[in-house]
Structure formats: C-alpha cells, structure tokens
Design brief:
Distance between the termini: 26 Å
CATH architecture of one domain: 3-Layer(aba) Sandwich
Number of helices: 10
Order of helices and strands: HEHHEHHHEHEHHEEHEE
Structural class: alpha/beta
Helix content: 40-55%
Number of strands: 8
Strand order of the largest sheet: 3-4-2-1-5-6
Shape: globular
Amino acid sequence: MRHIVPAGLDRKEAAVWSKLDPERLPKHIAIIMDGNGRWARRRHLPRVAGHRAGVAAVRSTVETAARIGVESVTLYAFSVENWQRRPELEVDFLMALLRRYLRQEMPTLKRNNIRLEYIGRHHELPPKVRERMAWAQLETAQCTGMRLTLALNYGARSELVDAFNRIVQKAANNGGIEHLTIDEEAVRRHLYTSHMPDPDLVVRTSGEMRLSNFLLWQVAYAEIYVTETLWPDFRGIHLLEAIAEYQKRERRYGGLAPARDHAGSRRV
C-alpha cells in the first residue's frame, strides 16, 4: 500500500508520499494561514494582492489533503480580531474574496468529494456572505470525502465563551443551574467542533511561533509544525512535508514513551 501513489499527485509530491506511512496520517489537520501581507510587501504590492494569491495555496493544499485521504482540514480563514482590527476596505475585500472563492472553487470541491463546513460567529458576517456560505454548504452536503472547515469570524476565546453560555442556558431551560456540573466532556459537547475529532497536526506558515487564538482547547495535544514559507507560496508538497515531520514524532498525550530493550526495540 505504501507504494500506491494517489491519483493527482505530481512527481515531487509522489516522492514525498513514497516515504510516508499511509496508516499514520493525521486525521485532522488545522492550518493557520499566515504571511499574505508580507508576501505582498516583499513584492511592493498592496496587502490585498497577498490575500488574492493565497487562494491558489488553499486550492493546492486542500486538493492534496483530499487526494491522500486526510479526513478533516480546518483553515483559519478570518479571525474575530481580523473583523475588529483590520481596515474596513481590507475587510470588505476579504468578504468579497470569500464569496468569489466559494463560487469559483465549487467544481474543485465537488470533484474531490469535499464537504464544506464553517465554525465561528458567522452569523455576524454580512448577509450576502452568509447567503453564499449557505449555498456552498448545501452544494457539498452530499459529498462523503474530506471535511473542509473554514474558521470565519472565529476566535478560540469567543468559542469558549459561547460554549459556557450555551451550557448555562441549557441548564436554565431544564430546571435551573443549582446542580449544574461542568466537566471537560460537557465543554467539548458545546464547542463549535463537537462533531469532529481534535486536530492531530497544526501547521503554521510564515515562521511565527504562536497559535493566535486558534482552537486553543482542541489543540491541547496536537503536534505543531511551523514553516517559514509564506501562505501564498504554500502548496501540497509543503503539506506532505509537514506530515512527514509529524510522522517522525512520538505522541505521548502526557504519558511516558514506551521502554526500549537493549537492541533498541520498543517493549509494550
């Protein structure tokens, strides 16, 4: 099975794939797409040019993930902070770009059997954007392959606030909060991501060493991979390289590594 190259991979991608263990792919990859502004600035272009160029990175990355059998990819597309702190003209451009992306990329999503979903406070987005989002989600609802989740107007702290508010409101509607107990499972059930597994791998582009308020609860035990590559230059080959690094690591979830005998073999 290791030597079967998924359809659609190019020569360089196939070379990296040949070194991977298909049985140990991360089930859920979360990506912090960073570096659009720097990409544009280095080329003496306006920031919006970097956002526009980032669409090609999304297409290549998502297609490669779907082709190799990754179950879920979540893209940090637009944060609460972006909504609150970016210039109005840039926000308007990003909203228009999102609408155009959802329309133009629909054939690609369907061809790759990709189901589209969203997390975040997207009810606060402009009506025309929400309409296009609803249309795109409905168009891919019958797809049975990879789940692509766009984090839009998303912030991890906002998600936790919303989760706790839902827990309290639910208790209040069911007899009162006097005997309310909140544990990790209760919180998990009320997160935006309650229907999907936690990320196994977080990829951040542009070399920044921070999570930027992204899936803070869910990535507690995720492996983090940082690349200097700016997002508009990121492609499927870079995703495969991130997975190759992921497969070199030993995930312990707070426990100890398996003991090894004198010959170097693991004892279980």
